[in-house]
Amino acid sequence: MGERIVILGGSFGGLTCAFDLRRQLGKKAEISVVCDLDSFIFIPSLPWVSMGYRSPADITLPLQRILGSKGIDFIHEEATGVDPESSVVITGARKIRYDYLIIATGPALAFSAVSGLGPEKGYTECIFTLEQAVRCHEAWKRFLEDPGPIVIGSVQGVSCFGPTYEYAFEVEAELKKRKLRHKVPITLVTSEPYIGHFGIGGLGKSRRIMEDEFAEREIRVITNMAVDEFTPEEVRLNDGTKLPFKLSMFAPPMTGVPAVSHLGNPKGFIPVDDNYRHRDFKNIFSVGVAVAMAPPEKTPVPTGLPKTGFMTVKMARDAARTITADILGKEPPETEPVDVLCLMDMGDTAAFMKAKPVLPPRQESTLKAGKHYKWMKAGFEKYYLWKIKHGLTQLP
Ligand SMILES: Cc1cc2nc3c(=O)[nH]c(=O)nc-3n(C[C@H](O)[C@H](O)[C@H](O)COP(=O)(O)OP(=O)(O)OC[C@H]3O[C@@H](n4cnc5c(N)ncnc54)[C@H](O)[C@@H]3O)c2cc1C
């Protein structure tokens, strides 16, 4: 019997770790992935689900099949806790012992941050989970029958801004295509100090380019703004402005998930060293959105640092190499700071974003818009799903 490695989460971080460890360690490790969902979801395509451009089946893969084919055990259960002293994961059904644990549980969505926020207990749509994106598409179909003002945005404390930009651009392009644009005032409200900040202090000419792109589309932009509350008909901003809406989509802040929050900082994100090892527990690692990372600057309205898919895969590859080195009795590998490589849909066009490393000062920093990036984004979706299906983890 080899070392027992348990991975929480079956998405970008968890699957990359699982496949790399299987390749690197062969029979020297028993690997289990514990996940509350039974499918891998290609999250970057959720805005397309909300617009009706993709169905859930287009962007999901069954975890049992893709993990089973690599000899990785899949446990379709929600972890409810972790006891780091006795090295066990707790689920509703059992206790799972581990020699190494990798936490790749992503975020919990903190809709309670603002009164009236969110699809379940509030009045706004969201596109951060598959369920929400499907629901948002239903709201969109109803909206098209009786259009009116749309308010889109990111409340105070948000760290993941890109999908909200994508949604605003996609809604605008789709309304134009349907010859409805003149009936729909669109407003984007954001906690970022300026448009194009993205929670990372901007990149390249992102501020100038994004200001122009929103201006050209006549999307009103309100930056540096907190939201006081949402009612069924309007968004009430912190400066007293009231924005009526027929449809509203807002991003929530994120925290760590409850099952592991006792291992994290006050927001429940896991503190790790340069090799993604927990600062207090040597046999616990964490990658992806679950990791604690400080933003580059304190913004007047609070914002957080986004942790993208590319960053997550890079973290996961480094964590897997470190665990492999540990098990084989070797020195931990050198790691580099994470960077951003992203394609953002803009409706009729798209943008390519690169920030290396993610936090300034940087070696490379660029945002470029162009129609060919839209085709690259659609191609990348297919390529990534193909890669995950075959257990491949190389970075582009
Ligand atoms: C709408 C949207 C669009 C995005 N677009 C892009 C993009 O274009 N490019 C890009 O690079 N990044 C994008 N991102 C960011 C990217 O999706 C994340 O960086 C990535 O999903 C992080 O992967 P992860 O494995 O850390 O967490 P997640 O993908 O959130 O996965 C967490 C996993 O853990 C599971 N889990 C959670 N709690 C438990 C528990 N208690 N027990 C068991 N399992 C649990 C979840 O079900 C899930 O499988 C986008 C994010 C969103 C929300």
Structural description of this entry:
There is one protein chain. With 396 residues, this protein is α/β, with parallel strands linked by helices. It has helices at residues 12-25, 46-51, 63-68, 130-145, 162-177, 206-216, 309-327, 371-389, and strands at residues 3-8, 29-34, 39-41, 60-62, 73-75, 79-83, 88-91, 95-97, 100-103, 108-109, 150-154, 186-190, 220-222, 227-230, 234-237, 242-244, 247-251, 254-255, 284-286, 340-345, 350-356, 364-370. The longest helix has 19 residues, at 309-327. The two termini are 35 Å apart. The chain binds flavin-adenine dinucleotide. Residues 8-14, 34-37, 43-44, 46-47, 78-79, 104-107, 127-128, 160, 162-163, 257, 259, 288-290, 307-310, 312, 342 line the site of flavin-adenine dinucleotide.
What is the tally of helical segments? 8
Main beta sheet: 5 strands, parallel
* Helicity, as a percent range: 25-40%
Low-confidence segments, given as residue ranges, are: none
Coarse structural class: alpha/beta
Strand elements, count: 22
| Cα shape | globular
Strand content: 15-25%
Strand order within the widest sheet?
5-2-1-9-19
| String of helices and strands | EHEEHEHEEEEEEHEHEHEEEEEEEHEEEH
Taking all Cα atoms into account, the compactness measure Rg is: 21 Å
Bound molecules: flavin-adenine dinucleotide
- Mean pLDDT across the residues is 97
Distance between the termini: 35 Å
